[in-house]
Design a protein that fits this description.
Layout: H1 6-22, H2 27-46, H3 50-68, H4 73-110, H5 128-143, H6 153-161, H7 174-181, H8 189-222, H9 229-260, H10 278-284, H11 287-298, H12 308-326, H13 330-348, H14 368-389, H15 393-403, H16 416-431, H17 447-464
């Protein structure tokens, strides 16, 4: 079930009314209702994969209980390994089996040997990377004794499968989300209103920004050999906004939907294209994933509290794993490598931790220095996005070769209206850069005027939505 469909427009009000008006008095029944609702939501894609969510949930629930009963290091480590093997084994089989088989075949072919092996026609379960990382974080935190394991199986199963963020995040931590299932929720009017604003904003990002950009992106990337360098540049430019509008739009709708039900999910995007270096970009882009890798991979490896050589190693491991998490294709690994490579200057200059505040706070216009920093960071991100979008590595290199040819300075064959629209949108992001989201417009004191802004945005969505496109991150 997609957020931007009539099905969800019917589904969500029914869930909201039953949740608050029928099941409000009993938290266990509320949680059971959310669990059934979440499983139904997921089954709308393919009911056969519900078993995978059930297995992941059951394994980590039992591992958590077992960890609470023993202090013996060997047994605790065995339990953790059990969770890792089951969860990553399922993820690896469904997502990476064919990738490894094909890669082995290619390696053998380099030496003039052919390896007979057939790939399987394996369907990728929607959202498997997201809920796998979410349930793993619970087991790891229990193992580290950072949280107490829950013995409430209903709360835990609902935590793993919570439908607003089940298939594309944010990847929640048990320390934040799980306790919210174990305490009584009270309807909060202000929180619900803000949830509706986030849903409206998310639909705008997805249906107006992402879906309109997708049309241009699909045309340019498919027929890249027919276009000049400047057009290819804008093809990558449009993809940057397609994936941003698509993924941050989903996150906004997920967070807003959760708020309607009385839950607080973590912020997943924070104006990433206003970042002044890659360190800041990764503190603003897909925050739930970048912090997951920070806490469960980067810091355990030693983080930056090691020699510079090992620090660089840790950076590359995290970015390469991040690329591999996104998909079974060398293009994603190269995408991660590019980010790691351009992250190195921050290490050598000790600037990784810079820019934790918004650019030019309190100023209407950006300084020239900020413009240069934001522009150069965006250019690096844009080039990396070419690998993310390309069908294969050869496609990406040929695309970039033509993009950076002399024809880069020729006149682009793209919609000037779309370019202007995206520039205007970024102006609004700049003006709202110190807010939690774009529609946090409480500075408009007049309530009728604020409502008029919401209706105007709804009008834009209705009349300017592009052809419906699948959410990009469903494939991950």
């Amino acid at each position: 079930m997609l957020f931007n469909t009539i099905d969800f427009a019917i589904f969500m009000p029914i869930v909201f009314l039953l949740y608050w008006f029928v099941f409000k008095k009993n938290i266990k029944i509320q949680n059971l209702f959310l669990l059934i609702t979440s499983y139904f939501f997921y089954a709308c894609w393919d009911w056969r994969f519900l078993g995978l969510i059930f297995v992941s949930s059951l394994v980590d629930y039992l591992v958590g209980l077992s960890l609470a009963k023993t202090e013996e290091k060997a047994k605790r480590k065995t339990l953790l390994i059990t969770s890792l093997v089951v969860n990553l084994g399922i993820l690896g089989f469904f997502k990476y089996y064919n990738f490894f088989i094909e890669s082995f075949q290619e390696v053998f072919s380099l030496f003039g040997r052919s390896l007979e092996s057939s790939s399987l026609n394996i369907l990728l379960p929607v959202g498997i990377s997201f809920y796998t990382f979410q349930t793993l974080s619970y087991t790891i935190d229990v193992y580290r004794k950072r949280i107490e394991p829950t013995n409430n199986i209903l709360s835990f199963f609902t935590f793993v499968s919570f439908f607003p963020q089940l298939v594309a995040g944010p990847i929640e931590r048990a320390s934040n989300l799980l306790p919210q299932f174990e305490r009584k929720r009270q309807f909060d009017y202000a929180k619900s209103v803000d949830g509706l604003r986030l849903i409206l904003l998310g639909l705008f990002k997805k249906m107006v920004i992402a879906d309109n950009c997708a049309l241009a992106v699909n045309e340019i990337f498919t027929n890249y050999s027919e276009y000049n360098g400047s057009t290819l540049f804008f093809g990558a430019f449009f993809f940057a906004f397609q994936i941003y509008g698509d993924f941050s739009g989903y996150s906004d709708i997920a967070i807003g939907t959760a708020r309607l039900l009385g839950f607080d999910l973590m912020q997943n995007f924070n104006s990433p294209y206003l970042s002044r270096n890659l360190g800041e970009f990764w503190r603003r882009w897909h925050i739930s994933l970048s912090t997951w890798f920070r806490d469960y991979v980067y810091i355990p490896l030693g983080g930056n509290q090691v020699s510079k050589a090992k620090w660089i190693r840790n950076i590359f491991i995290v970015f390469l794993l991040s690329g591999f998490w996104h998909g079974a294709n060398w293009t994603f690994i190269i995408w991660g490598f590019i980010h790691a490579l351009f992250f190195l200057p921050l290490i050598f200059q000790n600037k990784n931790g810079h820019f934790k505040d918004v650019a030019d706070p309190g100023k209407l216009l950006p300084s020239l220095k900020s413009v240069v920093q934001i522009g150069s960071t965006f250019l690096i991100v844009l080039v990396a996005w070419v690998f993310f979008r390309a069908e294969n590595v050869t496609h990406a290199f040929l695309y970039l070769q033509e993009m950076f040819s002399v024809s880069l300075f020729s006149f682009p064959m793209v919609s000037k209206g779309l370019v202007l629209f995206l520039m205007v949108y970024m102006i609004f992001e700049w003006l709202q850069r110190d807010k939690k989201h774009l529609l946090e417009i409480d500075f408009i004191r007049s309530k009728p005027l604020r409502i008029a802004v919401y209706y105007c945005l709804a009008f834009i969505i209705f009349y300017f939505a592009g052809d419906t496109q699948p959410f990009i991150y469903f494939q991950f």
